[in-house]
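Letters spell out the chain; the tokens describe the backbone. To illustrate:

===
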Amino acid sequence: MSTKKALILSANDFEDTELLVPYYRLLEAGFTVDVASDKGSPIRGKHGYEVPVSKVFNELSQDQYSTYDLLLLPGGKAPAAIRNNQRVQEITRYFMNEKKPVAAICHGPQILISSGVIRGRNATCYKTVVTELREAAAQYQDTEVIVDGNLVTSREPRDLPAFCREIMNLLGEQGQQFQQGQQLQQGQQSQQGQQQKDEQQWHKY
């Protein structure tokens, strides 16, 4: 089975825990995790933590970002800095349109707003983003985590346990569906193979 992959979009002044906690949780679960930013140099969080950058926005083609299983949008000041980047919006729209898992926390939903993909969706965010989330026609709820189809959103660092839990639940459900689909396909192939063998045996008589 191939290794699952997660893509994080961020920049300097990210909220340290909102990037690092899901980052390490995904690594623990066996994911390959890439951090993408506008430049290839390490990015620094609001509280001084540095994170290496493995991908640059404008160098990510659809052939590349379509191979990821999860898009993660941490908060802090980073979302405001990258929300109007065309490649960031392109990647975000691709994940939302394809119904691939997207997780955004704190100011992360600002990227969803600028990408035009939040209308009609149930979501939460940091308190200073509430007004523009509502103006974008999202259904805002003040709660620690909301799961709406492929979208997981949370408000702030204290919500991280619930945020990470629902990310892993969503990824686990998708993995089970994929595995069940494989098993069904293998079962159908096995059944077809047995039918062909039976038909060959019948032709002998």
About this structure: Residues 117 and 186 are 36 Å apart (CA to CA).
